[in-house]
């Protein structure tokens, strides 16, 4: 069974400001507004980053899950990690056997998702998605392949918590993938990416705290971030309540590569 990191969702209080940062810093364009999120009382914008996707979302009404999360975190924060699998029935069977609660599920036109309760999995809301073709991505909007995209892709998601090993082992059990110690934390390798689990140094509780983005021209991205006052002292970018680590082509790939058919 293969999993890859396909989309990251981030909750923001100011959607227009968040879009402006994504477009100015990364050169993102053609945001897709998915009307399907209206049933959650949300508005969103989805950007293509190569064949991965960044989703920025905000509540449009009171008493929403995202609104409560923003209140607890006192501002913008990571919301969801979306993985694509080539064997959805096997993945769902493993979720059921592990006793993980499913908070939402959809199947339509050869694609779908399963959202897992963050308290059962740990770290953040996890969605396991499938498409009829491996290269397809319904949530990117019609014709997303024809839209220009930044020469960047999302290659890692980083969850923080008071017990990173326990969190990593829960994800490992749910996904059926091994976890291992890695640079002071824990790691699960994906197809073309990775999940990292680190100690909660900011004492904010469990959460999606950082992303790694592989860019063809990292210096240009960091320069634009500095112009918008988003550069962080550690050489990354501070955006949407998260740290965005910018990797260049010469960076050691934090991943392994598996092959899968369509």
TrEMBL record:
- Pfam families, per the entry: Glyoxalase_3
Q: What InterPro entries has UniProt attached to this entry?
A: Glyas_Bleomycin-R_OHBP_Dase, Glyoxalase-like_dom, VOC_core
Q: Give the matching Gene3D superfamilies.
A: 2,3-Dihydroxybiphenyl 1,2-Dioxygenase, domain 1
State the signal peptide span. Answer: none
Name the PROSITE patterns on file: VOC (PS51819)
Q: What is this protein called?
A: VOC family protein
Gene source species: Novosphingobium tardum
- Residues in domain VOC? 4-131
